[in-house]
Amino acid sequence: MEQSHEKKSKTMIQELKEGYGHFFEDDLINEIAQVGTYKEVPEGYKLMDIGEYIKGMPLLISGAIKVLREDNDGDELLLYYLEKGETCSMTLTCCLGDSKSEIRAIAETDTKLIMVPIQKMEEWTAKYKSWRNFVFDSYHSRLNELLSTLDSIAFDKLDMRLVNYLKEKSRINKGNTINNTHQEIAYELHSSRVVISRLLKKLEQMGKIALHRNSIELLDL
User: Fold this and answer.
1) 82 and 183 both lie in a single domain
2) pTM of this prediction?
3) Is the same domain home to 182 and 150?
4) Are residues 141 and 169 in the same domain?
5) Which among 116, 132, 155 is the end of a domain?
């Protein structure tokens, strides 16, 4: 059992250095490996839901997580993606304020991550300058992405938002095939299936995409 734990710890340290070595010094990485919980979750797994109390903060090792917000009618809006070397600043806010989550986090792809207990947040903020910088950088990055999302909703036409959405999906999933239904895309863009289907058909007629059953192939976006 001791050897298994030691091997697991070494694996965590190696993956933390690959994903976060440019941020964290060795002492902090060793502490994260000691108290963190290593998790592998499949595509579609719900890591966090609205209204839940947050017990830990995710540090992504590989894969991607989509972060969504919900309106009063239960409709979802995609806010941003988290990738390797990143964390969720909205999770940080809830952790420090001991408040309930206001976002939903779902694995976009098969994902590996390390969950850090919230008790360590303030301790590391005081102890490690690299942790403080990482937290501030995370806030800054997420704020910029949220502003970009807000600008997109306020100023961009839906067809442009759809094109950008498809491109980002392709980049995140590292392939030209997007395995989502028109209804799922409509949810994430806060639109209706009828409108999304019409815009997708238009893109297909322009030779930009090819529509298949429950999937979309990007050709020339």
Assistant:
1) no
2) 0.71
3) no
4) no
5) 155
Q: Residue 144 has which token pair?
A: 């910029």
Distance CA 122, CA 213 (A): 49
- Strand 104-107 with 46-48, pairing: antiparallel
Report the run of H or E that residue 170 belongs to, with start and end: helix 158-173
| Cβ proximity of 47 and 56 under 8 Å | no
Domain encompassing residue 188: 158-218
Q: Which residue, 194, 174, 218, 54, is CA-closest to 121?
A: 54
Q: pLDDT tens digit string along 112-162? A: 999 988 888 878 988 999 998 988 888 888 788 777 777 776 666 888 889
| Shared-domain flag, residues 130 and 165 | no
- Other CB atoms within a 10 A radius of the CB of residue 62 amount to 16
Distance CA 112, CA 216 (A): 26
